[in-house]
Specification:
Number of strands: 7
Mean pLDDT: 83
Structural class: alpha+beta
CATH architecture: Roll
CATH topology: FAS1 domain
Distance between the termini: 26 Å
Length: 202
């Protein structure tokens, strides 16, 4: 995948989704049929929603990955037709992560290139792609195949060898922290989105 293709696709989606319809949420898992919009369409529509935006920083992270790694299979899948389930951190979740690291981030890189470049500078190139990959798993997984009725369920992610567990209340235990599913079963044409309140750390 070429950098110019990613940039053009992102621009087309940004223009096309400014007036995107509201996304149906919740409902019985059996009714989670493929939606009309891709996962990236949903993220872009939310990022364009002004005060209602949930995923502006998730979109920024995906576009940052596309810019730094034009051949990213993760980005290709989110923009294209691969079936993925995304555990999508809100803007507040990403803001909390940046705030926790802010004292250690290079102020010049932060000002010039943004928080994701500064985090990659601090923790090593590819950190942001690894973190986002840790929020994605293969296939369409509605809440009934994520949240167990008893005990916990292990979720394998696109980050090689990395997993997290989900309990009966939608609580997530990751390698280094925890989160909660706060909105489930947002159906996309190429997968399902579950909204979480904390960025998971592999």
């Amino acid at each position: 995948m070429k950098r110019s293709f990613i940039a053009a696709m992102a621009a087309l989606l940004l223009v096309g989704m400014l007036a995107a319809p509201a996304v149906a949420r919740g409902g019985p898992p059996a009714g989670v049929v493929p939606g009309d919009d891709s996962i990236t369409d949903i993220v872009i529509a939310s990022a364009s929603a002004g005060e209602e935006a949930e995923f502006t920083l998730l979109l920024d992270a995906v576009l940052y990955i596309a810019g730094t790694n034009p051949d990213s299979a993760l980005v290709a899948g989110l923009f294209d037709s691969d079936q993925y389930t995304v555990f999508a951190p809100t803007d507040a979740a990403f803001g909390a992560l940046v705030g926790a690291l802010s004292a250690d981030l290079d102020a010049d890189i932060l000002a010039a290139e943004g928080p994701f470049a500064a985090i990659d500078d601090l923790l090593g190139p590819g950190t942001i792609e690894a973190v986002v990959s840790y929020h994605v798993t293969d296939g369409r997984r509605a809440s009934n195949s994520v949240v167990p009725r008893q005990n916990t369920r292990t979720i394998s992610t696109l980050l090689d060898g990395a997993t997290f567990s989900v309990d009966t209340q939608g609580g997530i235990t990751a390698s280094e922290n925890s989160a909660t599913i706060i909105d489930a079963n947002i159906s996309a044409s190429n997968g399902v989105v579950h909204v979480i309140d904390t960025v998971l750390l592999p």
